[in-house]
């Protein structure tokens, strides 16, 4: 199934079906157990009633049972022979013996016969009401087993009707020491009927309920996924039109789909900005490359036509400028590609001293302030970090009037390198823009003939790749103060 709605509806239906089947089986088992226990209790009551009569030495043919059609009774002796059965009992199973014809039991001390035969009427004498058949003996002193009776299921045929019964077996001992077992049954028809009715209701209602669950799940899922379809259509349209300014619709809900739409729009915004920056970058790079290439071509063409007019120093300067620009563009491309810096541990203070020492022949020599005690170790690429320090020094020297100061210290949980000049400074509203690629202030364009506006952009990108920060602020001397923060090594 390729449809989320179909899979969701099928999954919900299967889960509900399993749950309902499990619950239904549990209900049926509990119902059957309860009704079976009730039938067993009824059978136990009848069995103990008959056992009580046997304990009082009531003759077998005088045993009284109530509802003989619903509660068949069979009495067996120690040898498992049936010595008494209830009226109209034609067949029985589940009691240990299937005998329904009483056999003589000499040890019983009473007449044998099927209980309540037609010939055993109450016209034997006035003392029949005692339940002892005119016997003048003193009452017996037998006993009934008070333990838990034995239960079992079986069948019995009473007056031509065969049914299932729950049998309870209770032992009784007569005054003569004869142990008899009374098997009394209670019908399981009510249990079977109830279980059958519940089972039928479940079998009828389960498919209908599952159909309702599947339909409701389908509709709810369809409604819930409707915004997703709108997002998909809009994304397809954006892909076809290549118009990154379009946005997907955001539903008014606060659920996962709304968050997905917002995240998608944020991604489109970031992608649009990235594409715009890439386009500007290509345009600016083309512009920056055009000037030195055109100048170099002009000089070479003039030199080819008039060798005495060839400006070799100018051609070399343009070539160096092209080489520096190509190097900067290559480094930016590597940074954009996600190249990870090395993890070499280095002393940032020593690196600053080395970079300053290479500038002895420049317009001005920066003043270095690095404590003699303490090691300012950071982890990263030595070449890239040296490039950052060099770019900051180049920028400070181009804009300083008379002094450039460099300091290294520990601070804010890391190492801080500050480069300060006494120039005109950077206006607050321009302090973030100067870190953009090819971004230069108007006065910088008139004074900086060689810069392409990539130095500070490269410095910030390298700082960020090393887990650090690069920011600019006003200096006390009135110029600009650039601060590079890097996390410590370790």
Commentary on this structure:
- The chain has 3 domains: 1-118 and 138-241, no CATH class; 256-336, Helix Hairpins; 344-486, Heat Shock Protein 90, CATH 3.30.565.10.
- It is built from 8 helices and 14 strands.
- It has helices spanning 4-55, 189-241, 256-305, 312-336, 348-357, 382-399, 442-447, 455-465; strands at residues 73-76, 82-85, 89-93, 143-144, 150-158, 161-173, 179-187, 344-347, 367-369, 377-380, 404-411, 414-421, 469-474, 480-486.
- Strands 1, 2, 3, 4, 5, 6 and 7 form a 7-stranded antiparallel beta sheet that branches.
- A hairpin with a 2-residue loop joins strand 11 (404-411) and strand 12.
- Helix 1 (4-55) packs antiparallel against helix 2 (189-241) and helix 3 packs antiparallel against helix 4 (312-336).
- The longest helix is centred in the middle third of the chain and has 53 residues, at 189-241.
- The radius of gyration is 53 Å and the shape is rod-shaped.
- The two termini are 52 Å apart.
- The relative contact order is 0.08.
Structural domains: how many: 3
Strand content: 15-25%
Succession of helices and strands: HEEEEEEEHHHEHEEHEEHHEE
The helix-and-strand class reads: alpha+beta
Distance between the termini: 52 Å
Provide the low-confidence segments as ranges: 107-140, 444-450
Gyration radius (Cα, Å) is 53 Å
Q: Look at the structure and give the mean pLDDT.
A: 83
- The helix content, as a percent range, equals 40-55%
Helix run count: 8
Q: What about the largest sheet?
A: 7 strands, antiparallel
Number of E-state strands = 14
Principal-axes shape call:
rod-shaped
């Amino acid at each position: 199934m390729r449809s989320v709605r179909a899979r969701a509806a099928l999954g919900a239906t299967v889960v509900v079906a399993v749950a309902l089947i499990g619950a239904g089986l549990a209900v049926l088992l509990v119902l059957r157990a309860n009704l079976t226990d009730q039938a067993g209790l009824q059978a136990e009551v009848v069995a103990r009633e008959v056992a009580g009569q046997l304990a009082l030495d009531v003759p077998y043919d005088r045993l009284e049972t109530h509802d003989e059609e619903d509660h068949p009774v069979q009495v067996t002796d120690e040898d498992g022979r049936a010595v008494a059965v209830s009226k109209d009992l034609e067949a029985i199973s589940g009691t240990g013996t299937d005998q329904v014809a009483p056999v003589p039991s000499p040890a019983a001390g009473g007449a044998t016969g099927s209980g309540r035969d037609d010939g055993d009427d109450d016209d034997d004498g006035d003392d029949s009401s005692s339940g002892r058949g005119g016997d003048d003996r003193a009452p017996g002193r037998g006993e009934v087993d008070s333990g838990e009776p034995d239960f079992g299921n079986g069948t019995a045929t009473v007056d031509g009707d065969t049914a299932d019964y729950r049998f309870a077996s209770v032992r009784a001992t007569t005054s003569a020491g004869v142990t008899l077992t009374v098997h009394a049954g209670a019908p399981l028809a009510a249990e079977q009927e109830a279980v059958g009715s519940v089972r039928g209701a479940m079998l009828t209602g389960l498919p209908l309920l599952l159909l309702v669950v599947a339909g409701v799940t389908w509709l709810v899922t369809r409604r819930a996924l409707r915004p997703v379809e709108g997002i998909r259509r809009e994304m397809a349209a954006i892909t076809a039109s290549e118009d990154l300014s379009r946005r997907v619709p955001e539903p008014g809900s606060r659920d996962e789909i709304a968050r997905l739409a917002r995240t998608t729009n944020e991604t489109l915004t970031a992608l649009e900005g990235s594409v715009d920056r890439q386009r500007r970058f290509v345009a600016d790079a083309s512009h920056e490359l055009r000037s030195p290439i055109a100048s170099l071509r002009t000089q070479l063409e003039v030199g080819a036509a008039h060798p005495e007019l060839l400006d070799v120093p100018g051609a070399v300067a343009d070539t160096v400028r092209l080489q520096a620009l190509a190097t900067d563009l290559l480094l930016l491309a590597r940074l954009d590609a996600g190249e990870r810096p090395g993890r070499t541990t280095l002393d940032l203070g020593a690196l600053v001293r080395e970079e300053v020492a290479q500038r002895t022949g420049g317009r001005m020599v920066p003043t270095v302030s690095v404590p003699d005690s303490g090691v300012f170790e950071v982890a990263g690429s030595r070449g890239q970090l040296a490039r950052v320090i060099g770019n900051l020094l180049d920028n400070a020297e181009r804009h300083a009037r008379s002094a450039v100061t460099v300091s290294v210290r520990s601070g804010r949980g890391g190492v801080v390198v500050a480069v300060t000049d006494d120039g005109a400074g950077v206006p607050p509203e321009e302090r973030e823009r100067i870190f953009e690629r090819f971004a230069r202030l108007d006065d910088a364009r008139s004074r900086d003939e060689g810069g392409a506006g990539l130095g500070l952009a490269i410095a910030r990108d390298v700082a960020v790749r090393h887990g650090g920060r690069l920011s600019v602020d006003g200096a006390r001397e009135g110029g600009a103060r650039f601060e590079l923060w890097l996390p410590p090594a370790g």
